[in-house]
Design brief:
11 strands; 124 residues; mainly beta; seven-stranded mixed beta sheet
Amino acid sequence: VRLAESGGGLVQPGGSLTLSCVASGLTLEYYAIGWFRQAPGKERERVGCVGNSDGDAYYAASVRDRFTISRDNVKNTAYLQMNNLNTEDTAVYYCATDPQLYHSVCDSLLYADWGQGTQVTVSS
């Protein structure tokens, strides 16, 4: 299984970014997808996770109503749409999945397959 994130970059506060996570070796639509992030000097934290059925989603309180996870099954790609970004969103963002997970369980220890991460910097 290989996951490859892209779409990170520098954005001003209040701006938006969409991160992509392309999967190979696994069909993403059947499994849970998690997005996590790690800021400098901080532990990795969960951003949000979705299961393989519509409506099965969890978002951290800090991003709820601003971030949305979606997937394109044809492209075998997951997305993290991020709106109204603020400086506290600055971090390396990772997507993850696991062939044993089907629901929006957002514990990073349960995910076996990870991307390499993409940097998101929110700054004026």
